[in-house]
Amino acid sequence: MTYLRTFLPWIVFAALPSGSWQWGASAALVVAVALIAGQVRAGVGLDALIIELGSAVFFAVLAVVAFADHDSGVHDYSAALSSGTLAVIAGVSLAIGKPFTLGIAKRTTPREVWGLRPFVRTNVVITAAWTAAFALTALALAFEAQSGHGHSTPATLVQVAGFAVPMVFTVRYVAHVQARAGQSAR
After folding, report:
1. From CA 11, how far away is CA 160, in angstroms rounded?
2. Which of 7, 17, 147, 152 is most buried (most C-beta within 10 Å)?
């Protein structure tokens, strides 16, 4: 549920009709800001809101561009730019040593494991998988946009896969790590 909440602005943007992209970007911005506000009120630190903060910035800029020029060429590449932005956010979080999944994982993990090397390493691997998925999705969507099929069913399937594949990887990898930890504890 935490990942779904984290990526809710992106889901909202993808779900709204592409012809109304300025309203999709605005709705996604409202959702991102509401998520941030709710999480901050609940005591979640900003370090655990890396994707949410990046989402708010991206959708604010995209909404300004969309309202300034509804027919902007940016529209055709908005899906690719979305995934590319997520790849950059995730990649930067890795580069600065604060993988974005670490903040998400801390929400459901006991505090005493947060500093343990296996916990951090697991989140580095998971964040790297998300980063790669976002980057590959951005490239595929840019290719679709370049070929004139940027808002087609195949592009939608690429976007869904860009979230589903790393989500499945995350669930399976965490289960694998936990199983290995359980075996070595015996």
Report:
1. 9
2. 7
